[in-house]
Amino acid sequence: MASTSDIRKGLCIRYNSDIYKIIEFLHVKPGKGPAFVRTKLKSVSTGKVLENTFSAGHKLDDVRVETRSYQFLYAEGEMYHFMNTDDYNQISLQESALDAPNLLKEGEVVTILFNTEDSMPLSVDMPASVILEVTYTEPGVKGNTATNATKPATVETGATVNVPLFINEGDKVKIDTEKGAYIERVK
């Protein structure tokens, strides 16, 4: 059993007869009244996100998880295929198990959380950032870089990311997978 003080991003808990992963949380200590924790929970079976508030000291039924490294092979409709980097076993997961499927490039290594009780995959944790090549973007206007203006760019996975005006087609950019935002240009 865990309590509200153990809440962290990525913790898997059993709630309302389903397993949920905490994707956001905020400890709140108001000036008047007891403290509480406001959370956003994502169902690992349906992908549905719900918000819930736990009072301070509330007991949570946490799920023991095991992490394994898998390499992304390819996507086929709603199914994403991964290969274990240790024993080369392959598994297929629904798109709803991934946080940012549009930023997943073939060959990328991800961490998959497994329930230790029944060895069922719960969710896929992307790396903190990925490096992708820009396949299409409008050319930047020379001398228009004094402001923090951005333009949309399509990367090799098909995702659209806002990038600074000096980024051109063929440039490699580092993208934050949590927010889907541009970090920097990579040489």
TrEMBL record:
Signal peptide: none annotated. Residues 67-122 form the Translation elongation factor P/YeiP central domain. Its main location: cytoplasm. Residues 130-185 form the Elongation factor P C-terminal domain. GO terms for biological process: peptide biosynthetic process. Pathway: Protein biosynthesis; polypeptide chain elongation. GO terms for cellular component: cytosol. Keywords: Cytoplasm, Elongation factor, Protein biosynthesis. One of its GO terms (molecular function) is translation elongation factor activity. The keyword Repeat does not apply. InterPro entries: Elong-fact-P_C (IPR015365), NA-bd_OB-fold (IPR012340), Rib_uL2_dom2 (IPR014722), Transl_elong_fac_P/YeiP (IPR020599), Transl_elong_KOW-like (IPR013185), Transl_elong_P/YeiP_cen (IPR001059), Transl_elong_P/YeiP_CS (IPR013852), Transl_elongation_fac_P (IPR011768). It is found in: Cytoplasm. Belongs to the elongation factor P family. PANTHER family: ELONGATION FACTOR P, ELONGATION FACTOR P (EF-P) FAMILY PROTEIN. Involved in peptide bond synthesis. Stimulates efficient translation and peptide-bond synthesis on native or reconstituted 70S ribosomes in vitro. Probably functions indirectly by altering the affinity of the ribosome for aminoacyl-tRNA, thus increasing their reactivity as acceptors for peptidyl transferase. This is Elongation factor P. It comes from Arenibacter certesii. The lineage of its organism: Bacteria, Pseudomonadati, Bacteroidota, Flavobacteriia, Flavobacteriales.
